[in-house]
């Protein structure tokens, strides 16, 4: 169970250490992910050239692999970087964007899980279920897309892959295969801005770089995302201005806000 | 002639159906286009890998092909996706960004029109004239870049290509080759933010996915863009804050605003 | 020494001439760089296909080569465009993002300097020192990353490469190898938004397109960046809203603000 005090301490650690988070991520969210990490206090780098994957991983404290805008060269870089990160012993977070939408994405996700063995898989309900059904579950999972309905498949996926699985939704579900932790924080406008899921994955990487308990790290990241969303939602009621205030909130969030919104929903 | 009531109804349809708009678009505007579509109520996906083009088109309600940052692999994907979309019967919108600036862009636009046969071509006056002159007009067109001066070439282009042509400018001109509809809505700061033209194309795709009358769909999209721009212009007087308010306006726009700003200019 | 009156006049020239700035830049900052240039009054184009490099350079008033998200094809395009720009006689600005972080980036920077001979190299202290150490200095340079500590290496780099070197930091240092000009303008939140360094390089290109004195052009760009940051800092105290106000400030900045903030720091 995630602890309030620990969350506050780990946020402080992120800001003190400014961990370098290496992102191989999609074109759509590169800018917004970089800004979310900087606002939080971490240091982002985006790099995808196979020629520099090992060097860059060598500098990083965590690696994010996000398959949002795939192509062959990028998949190659993802495998190289992922293996280098595992060898180095830094956490690898996989965001299987669009798994289930196309066979290409489902298969790429599956192959990254099989070969890289990411430490945390963070996606929405549909993506997690698609991966679970692609070979990481022993029974069928419900095909509706809520975090709730995906949680059984997620536990199977966690057990068979060895990764912590983090499903974002109205309530977030985090599991290592032995029980579910639910995070209620969040705001509906987070779903009206592109890339907030991807930012969640990057922020999960930042917390995983300062907390070896990966269930806790994944939970803390979703608490921070959700709380910052709630702070922004108190200042703006539509997506454009909300997003500016969301970055402000990531920059300003502290123990007081974490306590104020602890396990609030909406 | 585009109808006020129809525009309001089609906006409601976009929000109810949340059509998936598949964008093969340029790096510069991927984030802002996705946010414009989400704010409006549609569902964006950006994907360009040839390996998943047919799968992704199979899920989509419309396809946007935008040539803003070209390269060979992307052109190949554009052709594959375009043909799959036409086969499936969903509308294809071509945004020939920078046609006329380089031969590569003009030729790519021409080849996409010849082989894919897009349903709507949306660009600025210079781009439309460049394409018209590249083989879709029987006479010379004026080389100045206003929407007015391009409208004759646009009508020829529409007749010879079979596409509805939508020229954005201070006054937008939409034609199927048999007369011009003019849309006066707009705001000068829309020209001071990158990607608002590209967002127009994506929003045109959203309306084309709910209204088979493609002239009407193209007009409705420009009305929504222009009206949202006017709403934002009432709240901000410089590009940075204007853009945040523009996304807010796309999220908030309703029948009342559409009526209030109907055929206003500036 | 950069002159206040000249800075104001050159800003006017940028707005009157709206020079086309061709950017081969990284995915993270394409949108924000385009918006910074538009807000300032220049015209951005982002293009990287080898097939259109010479055509696009042929239209441009300056070229920016930014290595932030490298890959082989892009490096090839950078060399082609760089050589075409030099042949045409327009200024070439190199932003060696991440030089020193990986050998790939350091070597690419070195090879671009050797073969293209950029007119201005703009980076932070670490990047400039990494390049200087990679063969453009006759003695070791201090390995700390401040602009101050890099300034000796920067002067050597300037003398050996023939480029003006512009180091951004709390105080910016600009040198042609024969003395240093320091610019104090700036705001700490500029370091909390991704891509402000890259925007500096693009704005340097805009000023270099209207002022042949490249030291002055580089200084003017940093004054405008810093002053706009200070204007934004007076309106916002966190990165998300700050960035919107920064773009507003680039749009609004005039002689009055330039005078008001002249050589202010913080």
How would you portray this structure in words?
- Three copies of one chain form a homotrimer.
- Chain A has eleven helices and eight strands.
- By secondary structure, chain A is of the alpha/beta class.
- The first copy, chain A, has one domain (4-261): Ribokinase (UDP-N-acetylmuramoyl-L-alanine:D-glutamate ligase, 3-Layer(aba) Sandwich), CATH 3.40.1190.20.
- Chain A has an eight-stranded mixed β-sheet, with helices on both faces.
- In chain A, strand 3, helix 4 and strand 4 (92-95) form a beta-alpha-beta unit.
- The relative contact order of chain A is 0.15.
- Residues 139-144 of chain A have low confidence and may be disordered.
What is the string of helix and strand elements of chain A? HEHEHEHEHEHHEEEHHHH
Sheet with most strands: strand arrangement of chain A: 2-1-3-4-5-6-7-8
Strand content of chain A: 5-15%
> Which term fits the overall shape of chain A?
globular
The major beta sheet of chain A can be summarized as: 8 strands, mixed
Chain pair forming the biggest interface: A-B, 28 and 28 residues
Structural class of chain A: alpha/beta
**Quaternary organisation:** homotrimer
**Mean pLDDT figure of chain A:** 94
Number of strands of chain A: 8
Distance between the amino and carboxyl termini of chain A? 21 Å
CATH superfamily of chain A: Ribokinase
Radius of gyration of chain A, whole Å: 17 Å
Looking at the structure, the CATH topology of chain A is UDP-N-acetylmuramoyl-L-alanine:D-glutamate ligase
CATH architecture of chain A: 3-Layer(aba) Sandwich
CATH class of chain A: Alpha Beta
Helix content of chain A: 40-55%
Number of helices of chain A: 11
Uncertain spans of chain A:
139-144
């Amino acid at each position: 169970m995630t602890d309030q005090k620990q969350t506050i301490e780990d946020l402080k650690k992120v800001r003190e250490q400014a961990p370098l988070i290496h992102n191989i991520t999609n074109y759509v969210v590169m800018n917004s992910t970089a800004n979310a990490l900087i606002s939080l206090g971490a240091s982002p780098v985006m790099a995808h050239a196979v020629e520099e994957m090992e060097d860059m991983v060598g500098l990083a404290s965590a690696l994010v692999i996000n398959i949002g805008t795939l192509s062959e060269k990028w998949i190659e870089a993802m495998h190289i970087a992922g293996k280098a990160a595992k060898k180095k012993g830094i956490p690898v977070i996989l965001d299987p964007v669009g798994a289930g939408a196309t066979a290409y994405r489902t298969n790429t996700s599956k192959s990254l899980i099989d070969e890289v063995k990411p430490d945390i898989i963070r996606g929405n309900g549909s993506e997690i279920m698609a991966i679970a059904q692609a070979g990481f579950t022993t029974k069928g999972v419900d095909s509706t897309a809520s975090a709730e309905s995906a949680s059984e498949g997620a536990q199977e996926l966690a057990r068979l892959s060895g990764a912590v699985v983090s499903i974002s939704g109205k309530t977030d579900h985090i599991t290592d295969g032995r029980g579910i932790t639910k995070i209620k924080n969040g705001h509906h406008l987070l779903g009206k801005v592109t890339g907030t899921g991807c930012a969640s994955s990057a922020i999960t990487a930042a917390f995983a770089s300062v907390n070896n308990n990966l269930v806790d790290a994944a939970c803390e990241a979703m608490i921070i995302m959700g709380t910052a969303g709630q702070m922004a939602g108190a200042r703006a009621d539509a997506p454009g201005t909300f997003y500016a205030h969301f970055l402000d909130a990531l920059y300003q969030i502290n123990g007081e806000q974490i306590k104020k919104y602890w396990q609030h929903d909406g």
